[in-house]
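Protein Entry — a single chain follows
Fields — amino acid sequence, structure tokens
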Amino acid sequence: MSTVLTLDAMARRVKPGMKLALPVDYAGVSMAMTRPLIAHGAGRLHVVCLPTGGMQPDMLIGAGLVDTIETSAMTLGEAGGAPCFARAIATGAIKVVDSTCPAVHAGFLAAQKGVPFATLRGLIGTDILANRPDWKVIDNPFSETPDPIVAIPAIRPDVAIFHAPVADRDGNVWIGRRRELASLAYASEQTLVTVERIVEESLLSDERTAAGVIPSLYVEAVAVAPGGAKPLGLWGEYGPDMTEVARYAREARSEAGFRAFLDGADHALEAAR
């Protein structure tokens, strides 16, 4: 059974220097955890985005908590580029471990299967391969002729954090078709999930929901946070507030603007309480 915690208590599970896994913006980002993580201040994080990063990792970068980010892209979608990420790159404040979407997925797949690496072919001949010394070109052992293939090492995060519509009292979490979230949970040492609500009935006992459930075995803790993905969207619950995302993109272009945005977020959080 997963532990039910407050947002602040869950943020304290993240320790300095950890490898933190976060989902793509459309797949259930726990924006509700962003401000508690910043307030907690566990820095030197290695953030891995599955497979791309957006507003949440950008805010963690802006707050100075990230040393390394591993991702195939950083973007706010229609609102443009990720401003804190761009500023950190320009100043050399963070290290970027460049990847591709299939390579990030392959690393997580290897971790959840308990094997040291997964293989991809499409990276052969690309510039990105030349800049990833941890990716190894090996020969296909089943081919009688030379057949190079790339071995992608397993990605094993210390902690994964995401938001989902519902959990049950046993800590089972329903993610529907968002299999990225299953990859996060199965590959990570611990998984922290915020949800819109907790229901009494078991999500695993209903054939209509069971196939889309992450069992509580893979969920360390759950926190209830209605609207916890906002201003991003959550499938089946609410859409993204692109006006607010655009406001963030505009204000966070400067460090002072980013801090002002955080102050505004703090005030909104206090008003909600």
Q: What stands out?
A: Confidence is low (pLDDT under 50) at residues 269-273. The CA atoms of residues 157 and 188 lie 5 Å apart. The longest helix spans residues 255-272.
